[in-house]
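User: Here's a chain of 674 residues. Predict its fold as tokens.
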Amino acid sequence: MKKLLLASAASLLIATPVLAQDDDQDDSTASEDNVIVVLGEGLPETPGTPAYSTITIDRDQIISSGSGQLEDVLENVAGFQQFRRSDSRSANPSAQGATLRALGGNASSRALVLLDGVPMGDPFFGYIPYSAVDPSRLGQIRVTRGGGSGPFGGGALAGTIELESVTSADLQTFNAYGLINDRGDTELAASAAPQWDGGYAVVHGRWDRGDGFFTTPEADRVAATSRANYDSWSAGGRLVQQLGEDVEVQARVLAFEDNRTLRFDGADNSIEGQDVSLRLVTRGPWEVDALAYGQWRNFTNVVISSTRFVRVLDQKDTPAEGLGGKLEIRPPVGEDHTLRFGADYRRSEGDLFEDAYSAFSGNLTENRFAGGVNTDFGLFAEHDWEIGALTLTGGIRADRYTIRDGYYQAFDGSGAVVRDDTYPDRSDWEVSWRAGALFDVNDAVTLRAAAYTGFRLPTLNELYRPFVVFPVVTEANEALEPETLRGWEVGADFDFDVFDLSLTYFDNKVEDAIANVTIGTNLRQRRNLDAIEAQGVEVIMGFDMGDFRLDGSLVAVDAEVVGTGFAAPLDGNRPSQTPDLAASLTASWNFMDGGRLAATLRHVSDQFEGDQENDVLPAATTVDLFAQVPLVSNLSVIGRVENLFDEVIITRNQGGSMDIGTPLTGWIGLRWGY
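Assistant: Prediction complete.
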């Protein structure tokens, strides 16, 4: 099935005629009502979408980050966080989830990340393969904080992050760039974007490699300490073809691989993946968005003892498969009404194969196998009603989920059975809803309010896979229940000639929140807490003077654990890895055609490593720089600086064993095209 789908998508890309791009041709069409429709996008936002706290990152901001990494771009949205502060060149991939609104506490994604409508979370772990998505291939990012699952699909507990591919209108026929930093690390990328009448294609590739930096503080380094080496590549293609006046098809393929080394020689990990999707969009009186996708992923990880510096665990194979689709229909129901309804489905299957070794003899002590299957079938409907200056929106969805075929097996070095567990299948319905209102006070001021619920299934990783960050062992828990969210928010948006401001107060509560809970010395287990509660204020600001612009966001949150029974000692604690203040401010100046300067200031307050409010991760303030200066024709010189003032960023602190983030790093290179 995997080979058939990949071959079908590839043949579709190859079979389409690739014609030369005309200078006066773009990838948009105009309807009889003179509404410009850009090929390659999904259905437009509905009138009620702004009722929920939303922030948009445009293409200029996306391609102007100091690091060129997707997770760095997303950090311009204050409140976005991964489990740790490391980026995708120096973190374990399994810790790279996506969460919003201080609802963190473990490494899985509580926000739903979509690329052209397709969920990007790993089918086994739930992490986001950030290194597989080159920001220069994106045209826009829209982040909705809160809002429940709605029509997006299950898993949007803390919000939704929609990544939209760049259209050929924003690309030249050929684009390429290459950079090198002061350590000799390199970043290379290229794309081709031919257009023809009624369609276009974008074919792209990127390769990042380098010896990296030492994540271990200098005073703690030993002979076995390694730099954070990394070597990653991604390649893919996207075809957009208009089939009729109101119909278009979008096909996408993506393949990637990422290899990293963390802390010690031999502590290697890797991810790889192949994704394929096919989407049909109709824009006539009956609007339809039909999507189908397949994903195949794998993960490996070697754990090295931090005392004897030998291999103690080899997670040698974690194959996973995600299959799914979505159908959304918008019938014509009147000028002031927008109705959307449909269904979505996702099936996640994965297995773990790992070997454990003695730190003293080096002999094999156990072979372990684990895995299972999760499915989620959802039905949804949402209606927006425009009544003059007032817009009302409301929606409901029902999800039928299953957790089945779960198992865990362990055999000793001689092959004798140590453990052979199979877990009972489970299934149930979860009903969630969201509702909101917008009121346009005048042309410059809009008031809004919203309430919502949502849910997230535990991942296969949380259910069945234990892990080690030596010397701490975290056990899985096959009995985990789904997380559910209840929340509300109120806000006001101000849009003046050169200044815009958005203010939101929110109150969110995740019941049965899954967290890594300490149950013994150097021993944790994933468990359902009573709840995580978070109340806070979000501020989004923009100041536009034409060529000069300021963009900022800030979130201040009071988050705490609600715990009884086994979790009673945690009651009132701040969730692990959760800051109470985060802010980002970017100043940019387009000083000439194709020339751009940008500086980004970020601050994250202190966090706690674990659930006991111990092992502090101190606050960090960083400054990044970006410059693009045209040379001749389409050729520009690119300069980037990460962590200008060389701030020491503690990314992990377990019992005094620390990791640090990216130091001062300078990049220089050339870019052809935009």
